[in-house]
Amino acid sequence: xxxxxxxxxxxxxxxxxxxxxxxxxxxxxxxxxxxxxxxxxxxxxxxxxxxxxxxxxxxxxxxxxxxxxxxxxxxxxxxxxxxxxxxxxxxxxxxxxxxxxxxxxxxxxxxxxxxxxxxxxxxxxxxxxxxxxxxxxxxxxxxxxxxxxxxxxxxxxxxxxxxxxxxxxxxxxxxxxxxxxxxxxxxxxxxxxxxxxxxxxxxxxxxxxxxxxxxxxxxxxxxxxxxxxxxxxxxxxxxxxxxxxxxxxxxxxxxxxxxxxxxxxxxxxxxxxxxxxxxxxxxxxxxxxxxxxxxxxxxxxxxxxxxxxxxxxxxxxxxxxxxxxxxxxxxxxxxxxxxxxxxxxxxxxxxxxxxxxxxxxxxxxxxxxxxxxxxxxxxxxxxxxxxxxxxxxxxxxxxxxxxxxxxxxxxxxxxxxxxxxxxxxxxxxxxxxxxxxxxxxxxxxxxxxxxxxxxxxxxxxxxxxxxxxxxxxxxxxxxxxxxxxxxxxxxxxxxxxxxxxxxxxxxxxxxxxxxxxxxxxxxxxxxxxxxxxxxxxxxxxxxxxxxxxxxxxxxxxxxxxxxxxxxxxxxxxxxxxxxxxxxxxxxxxxxxxxxxx
Length: 597
Ligand code: GCB
Prior knowledge:
There is one protein chain. This protein is α+β, with helices and mostly antiparallel strands. The protein is 17% helix and 29% strand. It is built from eight helices and 32 strands. An eight-stranded parallel barrel has the order 23-24-25-26-27-28-29-30. The protein has a six-stranded antiparallel β-sheet with strand order 3-2-4-10-7-8, with no helix packed on it. A four-stranded antiparallel β-sheet has the order 1-12-5-9, with no helix packed on it. α4 (389-406) packs parallel to α5, α6 packs parallel to α7 and α7 (523-539) packs parallel to α8. The termini are far apart. 47% of the residues are buried. The structure holds (2S,3S,4S,5R)-3,4,5-trihydroxy-6-oxo-oxane-2-carboxylic acid. (2S,3S,4S,5R)-3,4,5-trihydroxy-6-oxo-oxane-2-carboxylic acid (GCB) binds at residues 193, 356, 419-420, 474, 504, 549, 568, 570.
């Protein structure tokens, strides 16, 4: 019978189905986040050793703890060697690395050596080493030198692991187990309409920090107060952080005590807007540590049914986007993001809905620079388990990580807490907690969600609308729902007294499939739906924004008819991100009409 000495229990590991119990805690959460703030990082991108592990053999047999040996020096049999084998680049999605991994759902091991990045001499003892993983879908477990350090849940937000205690000079072995199993108690749950890419799909890096360092900085303009700065630091003693904003001639000391401090400065910075995306250099300095941010100051408010940016009513000319690429999956780049922005601009957009999970942090950084507004979202989508306490904690944490990561970005207009979720008491309690968390972490932005409308009464009766400031609805009249009269009725009866955004509308159309507008999946049919939709939406005073579904065709396992073949075809452009469908120009024309003026 098979044996494993590493497993510590010889043959019994074969009979132990509780083998994961030791790997569920501690959890890496938003509490361990550290703002990068322009500090240098050691980039761990590049080739890592990689092995899929569908049966969790690495855990069952504790192969993660194998000592490093050359293959010819090993004497005991083993099923996987963390020091040997295939490599894949990080970041990447394993699905696109090998055809046989395309639909792989389960666990996989990433491994590499890392050198202690602190200088060998001098003040190294005073410095901390923190691992930052940009995103790993969905659950990541981190091991250093064969020792389990903790796990993170959530596939689209960064997490941080303090390695200091285990990294005393020299070379170490870093292992990250990533697992993308869809489960009903996860966020999103096991059923979505986007591809379940697995892996370390964003950058992994090491940060070296002084022992005393700034962990967070949140600087924004608050109407009636001025510039408000919140600083979090790693120590609880009473001290001062120096804050400088040269463009405002501001050079001040912010008192910190108990790990935090707040200061309010009565000043009137030049304002950020999509037309004038002015950014200000902000610097916080505490002892040896310096954090630098570029921040746009603007005010946002919801007044009745208007969204006000710097006091002026705003009309959101938007487009929805997934973070998806034919070649790289969820892995994105500045070039990819900038191409997305160019196409949005070609449409005449000032707004992007980043569906349905937090996109790469570079999106908001670049949107700040280019002057685009963003809807940022967490994947509370469809049938999440609204009862399970662990699921709620996971959703709250993903929201916290998103808000804390991006709240300094002027481009982020609104946090979206849910998409098309059922109106139950459990869901309402779950989303009330999320709304409260978002408001606690950020006092400057309206909240939104894609709410449901009642098909019979043709009204938005979803109780979620009461929790948010901007009401979103996804509607597919002309496509899933036949009767445009229902859309007209929903708009005519809208009386919630809050801005209404059509967060999705659209239709599938196969690029190059031309024919009668009566035939579904043709470009003509898709364009005809846009024409009718835009004619109706353009007449509805309640509608303050539109973000049709969506810019590019995207991969999704559940769409398998001959027109789709694994792709959602509602893109205004094909998945090559070049070919425009007829509907592209229809939307571009609409955004340049009186409605968009
Ligand atoms: C929706 C969902 C979106 C889907 C889309 C569709 O309502 O929010 O995730 O991809 O419809 O294409 O059906």
